[in-house]
Write a structure and sequence with these properties.
- The structure holds 2 protein chains of 2 kinds.
- Chain A has one domain (6-193, 203-254).
- Chain A contains 11 helices and 2 strands.
- Chain A has helices at 6-26, 28-31, 33-54, 62-93, 97-100, 106-133, 143-167, 171-187, 200-206, 210-223, 230-254, and strands at 56-57, 60-61.
- The longest helix of chain A is centred in the first third of the chain and has 32 residues, at 62-93.
- The radius of gyration of chain A is 19 Å and the shape is elongated.
- In chain B, strand 1 (5-15) and strand 2 form a beta hairpin.
- Chain B has helices at 46-53, 75-80, 97-107, 112-125, 141-153, 171-186, 198-204, 222-227, 271-280, 294-314; strands at residues 5-15, 21-31, 35-39, 61-66, 69-70, 82-85, 159-163, 190-194, 207-212, 215-221, 231-238, 252-257, 260-266, 285-290.
- Chain B has a 6-stranded mixed β-sheet with strand order 6-7-8-3-9-10, sandwiched between helices. In chain B, strands 2-1-4-5 form a 4-stranded antiparallel β-sheet. Chain B has a 4-stranded antiparallel β-sheet with strand order 12-13-11-14, with helices on one face.
- Chain B is of the alpha/beta class.
- Chain B folds into 2 domains: 5-222, 3-Layer(aba) Sandwich (Rossmann fold), CATH 3.40.50.300; 231-294, Alpha-L RNA-binding motif (Alpha-Beta Plaits), CATH 3.30.70.1560.
- Classes of the chains: A mainly alpha, B alpha/beta.
- At the A-B interface, helix 1, helix 4 and helix 5 of A face helix 2 and helix 3 of B.
């Protein structure tokens, strides 16, 4: 199959990213503020009030231990939420057709929306980091690793949001996955605790949760400790990235959930 | 001169997952520069055909080429040739008119500086420039339709497909849209139009296909198709009222009311003969008109004939 000229794809990509980031900025009260408020409450309640009674976790002050987890949690939910709502909104109102009838390749449509999700994830992550600095010191041990894990995780969940949006037929369908799958996996993904506290069975079971690898990979980048080896964390993230990318492309290319 | 086919469809079929056979082997050709009408009753397969041409519906079988580019192996080039105005309003109603058109230009690879020039030109031509910063949800129905036309034309497509573009638009705006469409057709854009306003098709289009139950039942020049109409019904307004319809040899005459007559005129009959007969009876006519649009007459006959045949089979 002949491809569309690269120039069309690049201009198209820029257009989608610009549109998506404008959307994040235009509705900042919905996209940026709520996670900042939620995370502030986590820091106040779990970190400051309860955390003082917990003491150390993994050799660190509980607030320091929890901060990377909360930043990652906000990045995951924001990047997922951005793409699932934007893409489903476009599908539901019909204006996704603007892209589907154009000569944009499926990869460009995916990448444009993923970049929008990453932008929102990073923006929220940055705000939560600023909030965290009011409660604790953050001394980044491995900035490159922290940044790489953050970006790759935001990409993974942006694609997951797109897959959810493609299959969704009504607004309930884009609320079910975050409520019943994403939230439990995130809360059980080592945001608030180290798996060394868990009985062996539950610690072993936690290892099938991909979010555990992402949270611990980021925590390693920030404070230098992790329940998981950093190599395993990157391997899991990259496997999910490839899996979701191929799935997104297949769905868009075949038009599953989008055409007919 | 041998002109390129703007659209060539061969043996196109579409069966939806629920088993409905929307298209049963369509063959259709549209010449470059044509203004082509694709007509049919609701559910006949028009929108499915357009959906397949614009890649919004997966075909089951057959071949579609747009300016020689196959949808199977050169889909990006085919898509770049097409601008589409769908039947349903399908834009982000919370975006400004300007952004909607600008974004569409971007999806077709037009850089922003160039897109800004195209967008302004389109919005001005469709009388939306003053509303450029307004969100689309604030526009009237007619304005939304015009915005969709501006969006479809911003990348200067060679083939413009309009799926009932004037539905719900008042007559004044509809006529101004006709003028605009004629103008861009004269400038070289091939146009395919579906509409329920048959007067619109008769006024604008040079060639026509009528689709019914997933099959093309007529495909010819508009003038040739209209010649196939064996009979027309005229309404005559009388100067002096009559108590009853006059009896005219070879003509079927009905009285609508005291001042109006309906006369069926067959293809071989002459209006001169009709007026001679009326003159002989001292019946003065102040004006006359077709009872229905001629294309509408033919359309109804073609689609009703099929229904009658179906009824016959079932019964």
């Amino acid at each position: 199959m002949s491809g569309a000229p690269l120039k069309i794809q690049l201009v198209g990509l820029y257009t989608i990213v610009r549109k998506e980031t404008s959307r994040v900025a235009r509705i900042w009260v919905q996209t940026i503020v709520p996670p900042a408020i939620t995370m502030s409450l986590y820091f106040v309640i779990f970190g400051n009030l309860i955390g003082r009674r917990i003491g150390d976790m993994g050799g660190f002050d509980y607030m320091q231990f929890m901060a990377p987890g909360l930043i990652m949690m906000s990045v995951i939910t924001s990047s997922y939420g951005n793409v699932v709502s934007s893409f489903f909104g476009a599908k539901f109102q019909g204006y996704l057709q603007e892209m589907l009838v154009s000569p944009l390749s499926g990869w460009v449509i995916i990448l444009g929306h993923v970049m929008g999700g990453v932008v929102r994830g990073l923006a929220v992550g940055a705000i939560v980091t600023v909030v965290a600095l009011f409660f604790t010191d953050i001394d980044v041990k491995h900035p490159f690793i922290a940044f790489a894990v953050l970006i790759l995780t935001a990409m993974v969940f942006s694609m997951a949001g797109m897959i959810n949006a493609i299959f969704a037929r009504k607004f309930d369908d884009i609320a079910i996955i975050p409520a019943f799958i994403l939230a439990p996996l995130t809360y059980l993904g080592g945001v608030f605790y180290t798996t060394s506290l868990l009985p062996d069975f539950w610690a072993g079971l936690s290892k099938v949760n991909p979010i555990l690898y992402m949270v611990n990979g980021f925590r390693y980048g920030i404070i230098g400790v992790s329940d998981i080896s950093i190599g395993s964390a990157f391997a899991v993230i990259l496997v999910f990235l490839a899996l979701f990318a191929v799935t997104c492309y297949y769905l868009i290319h075949k038009g599953i959930g989008l055409r007919d | 001169m041998c002109r390129m086919k703007a659209l060539a469809i061969n043996s196109l079929t579409k069966t939806y997952p629920n088993g409905i056979r929307a298209l049963r082997g369509i063959d259709l050709e549209v010449e470059e520069g044509d203004f082509f009408a694709l007509l049919g009753p609701n559910g006949a397969g028009k929108t499915t055909t357009i959906g397949i041409i614009t890649s919004l519906v997966n075909k089951t079988d057959g071949d579609v080429r747009v300016f020689g580019h196959s949808l199977d192996n050169d889909v990006y080039a085919a898509k770049a040739c097409i601008g589409v105005v769908p039947q349903e309003i399908n834009m982000n109603l919370y975006e400004s008119c300007y952004d909607i058109v600008m974004n569409q230009a971007g999806y077709y690879g037009i850089p922003r500086s160039q897109a800004a020039v195209h967008t302004e030109a389109m919005l001005r031509q469709l009388q939306l420039w003053d509303r450029r910063d307004d969100q689309a949800r604030g526009l009237s129905g007619g304005m939304k339709r015009r915005l969709m036309i501006a969006r479809a034309l911003v990348h200067s497509p060679k083939l413009l497909i309009l799926d009932e573009p004037t539905a719900g638009v008042d007559i004044e705006i509809r006529r101004s849209m006709w003028e605009f469409l004629k103008e861009i057709n004269e400038q070289g854009t091939t146009i395919i139009l579906t509409t329920h306003y048959l007067e619109e098709a008769e006024t604008l289009c040079r060639n026509i296909a009528i689709i019914d139950d997933g099959k093309i039942v007529e495909n010819d020049r508009m003038s040739a198709i209209l010649r196939k109409l064996h009979q027309e019904v005229f309404v005559l307004d009388l100067v002096n009222p009559l108590d009853a319809a006059p009896v005219l040899p070879d003509f079927k005459v009905r009285s609508v009311n005291a001042s109006e007559l309906e006369v069926e005129v067959g293809r071989g009959q002459s209006l001169n003969d009709l007026f001679s007969l009326l003159n002989e009876r001292s019946i003065a006519v102040s004006s006359m008109r077709n009872k229905t649009n001629r294309l509408e007459e033919l359309f109804i006959r073609l689609t009703q004939r099929k229904e009658a045949a179906t009824d016959g089979r079932v019964g």
